[in-house]
Specification:
By secondary structure, this protein is of the alpha/beta class. The chain has 2 domains: 6-194, 2-enoyl-CoA Hydratase, Chain A, domain 1, CATH 3.90.226.10; 199-247, no CATH class. It is 44% helix and 15% strand. A 6-stranded mixed β-sheet has the order 1-2-3-4-6-9, sandwiched between helices. A 3-stranded mixed β-sheet has the order 5-7-8. Helix 1 packs parallel to helix 3 (83-91) and helix 4 packs parallel to helix 5. The longest helix has 17 residues, at 218-234. The protein starts with 5 loop residues before the first strand and ends in an 11-residue tail after the last helix.
């Protein structure tokens, strides 16, 4: 049986999913895709998990699809048909996903970055939509990348396939924050600490709110948003949060240190 390529651990309400296939730059091989989906499902189904951290071993976060597996394969067999499921799990996760990048992301790897809620990258990390340079199209990842980044940047970077740095990735909206490599883990931990303070159901509903189509005008959305707000104020979670605030204590959902 081959060694696992994705490691899973849980501590203090945080599930850490680690890509560990440095021999091929954490490429999205069939084994890695399968194990990644299994780990995401495990984290999303576990009520004790509040936040998911996606990280990696080796110098590269993810180089995209495993081209050795894709070479010579027929249209239904290169793995791209499975990849939308991974992006969908990340994008629609009811639990916030924080991605930690200590190194480069390419193609499908950038798709996973875009599908995450918060992304912290080391200053030396680089990015590229390299698909056109091998004669393919960044089709699947476009569904999560295009809502994130500026249109002119998408036009340029999708068409040229050029490499860009973490500072530019932050400017165009692809990632959340850039930090020095030695501070990367501290910055990820800072976001995780902030996220676990939020109510689990409130975080899931807020993610849905952020992803939903925007109403034509504020007036068109006030009724639905008022109903949503009132429902959460009256909910068990909302009442616990209000009570905890009044009593100057942490809400029951905050994991013990």
């Amino acid at each position: 049986m081959p060694d696992e390529l994705v490691h899973y651990s849980v501590a203090s309400g945080t599930a850490t999913i680690t890509l560990d296939s440095p021999h091929n730059r954490n490429a999205l091989s069939s084994q890695l895709r399968r194990e990644l989906r299994e780990s995401l499902t495990k984290a999303q189904d576990d009520d004790a998990v509040r936040v998911i951290v996606l990280t990696h071993t080796g110098p590269v976060f993810c180089s995209g699809m495993d081209l050795k597996e894709a070479r010579g394969a027929e249209a239904g067999n290169q793995g791209v048909n499975e990849f939308p499921g991974i992006l969908e799990q990340l994008w629609n996760s009811p639990k916030p996903v924080v991605t930690r990048l200590a190194g480069p992301a390419r193609a499908g790897g950038v798709g996973m970055v875009a599908a995450s809620d918060i992304v912290v990258a080391a200053r030396e990390a680089t990015f590229a939509f390299s698909e056109v340079r091998i004669g393919v199209v960044p089709a699947v990842i476009s569904l999560v990348v295009l809502p994130r980044i500026a249109p002119r940047a998408a036009q340029e970077l999708f068409l040229t396939g050029e490499v860009f740095d973490a500072e530019r990735a932050a400017r165009i909206g692809l990632i959340t924050a850039v930090t020095d490599g030695e501070r990367l883990d501290d910055e990820v931990a800072r976001y995780v600490r902030a996220l676990v303070l939020g109510g689990p159901k409130a975080l899931a509903a807020t993610k849905e709110l952020l992803a939903a189509p925007k109403p034509a005008s504020p007036s068109a959305g006030f009724a639905a948003m008022n109903e949503l707000s009132a429902r959460f104020f009256a909910s068990e979670e909302g009442q616990e949060g209000i009570t905890a605030f009044a009593q100057k204590r942490r809400p029951a959902w905050v994991p013990a240190d």
